[in-house]
Each structure stands twice: as structure tokens, then as C-alpha cells.
Amino acid sequence: MIDKFTLRCERITPDQPNVNGRIYSAAILKQMVEQIHKKISIGIFFGRLGSSADPKIRIRDAAFRVTDAKIDTDGHISADCEILNTEKGVILEEMIEKQGVETLEIIPCGIGSVSQIDGGLTVIGDDYRLASLDVEPKLERSKPPEGPMMWPDEKEQQ
């Protein structure tokens, strides 16, 4: 049984475009960590399994609780987490047990303004509000995802 684990957000390097062409400044990443700490202080920062365009967090979708977050020396966000006793939490625990936590990473989900710059890149605005950290399979940094990402239970249904 896995109680606690740490995940990193390796898809976002400060001031560099990610695989989606979005640029998060070091200041925005610091702001995200501050928002996480504020929510942790009142016990309400949860994460989901898989990503969603919907920033609303529903308890039925929660898989883990974030207990701490920081910016690593290389500028990536890392989060200490605890698995929740929910349907999605059970799936996450099984994935970690079978594949290892090193095969997963967190990505931010939130809302805020953006601006377009040369080359079709998108800069995340300073009004960004983090809603959750979502767990996804880790990508090879040089290779964007092909098609929709699916979790093991979704693949079995096809």
C-alpha cells in the first residue's frame, strides 16, 4: 500500500515553451506553489487522474491530496502527495504499484489570460489561477503526445 509519494512537473521548464507551445515564467511557477500552499493550509488542494479542460474539482474525480509543493533546483514544480480512498485514488495506487511513480508526472490545470507571441507560442498571464495538479503518464521531452492519452481502464474498454 502506498501512502505518500512525490511527483514532478517536468513538462514545464520556466521561460521555455512546453510541448503545447505554452510558456510559463518562473514567476508564474512560484505563484502556483504559493497558491498550492494557501489551499493546503485550509486542507483543500486535490489532484486528479488525467487532465481535464474543466478547472472545477469534483471529489469523485480526486485521486490524491497535495501535502506540500516546491520548486526544485532545476525550476520544476514537485509535489508531495497522499492517495485518497476514492475510485480514482485506487486506480492511481494500482498504476504506481505496477508501473512505478517515476512513470508519472503532474501538470497544472487552471485558468487565466494568455497572450500570443511570434511562432505561435502562448505566454501564460500573471492572473493564472491554479485549480489542480493532474497526474498523467510522463512524456519524452522531445516528443509531443500522439492522440488522446488513455488510462489502463479506458484502453480495456476499446
Gist?
This protein has 158 residues and is α+β, with helices and mostly antiparallel strands. It has helices at residues 26-41, 87-99, 152-157; strands spanning 4-9, 22-23, 46-49, 62-71, 77-83, 104-111, 114-117, 121-124, 129-137.
Task: Report what the structure shows.
By secondary structure, the protein is of the alpha+beta class. The protein has one domain. 22% of the residues lie in helices and 34% in strands. The protein contains 3 helices and 9 strands; from the N terminus they run E-E-H-E-E-E-H-E-E-E-E-H.
By helix and strand content, what is the structural category? alpha+beta
Helix content: 10-25%
- Count the DSSP helices: 3
Distance between the termini: 29 Å
Low-confidence stretches: 142-158
* Main pleated sheet: 6 strands, mixed
Number of separate strands: 9
Shape: globular
Can you give the mean pLDDT?
86
- How are the strands of the largest sheet arranged? 1-5-4-3-9-6
Radius of gyration: 15 Å
Number of domains: 1
Which strand-content bin applies to the residues? 25-35%
Order of helices and strands: EEHEEEHEEEEH
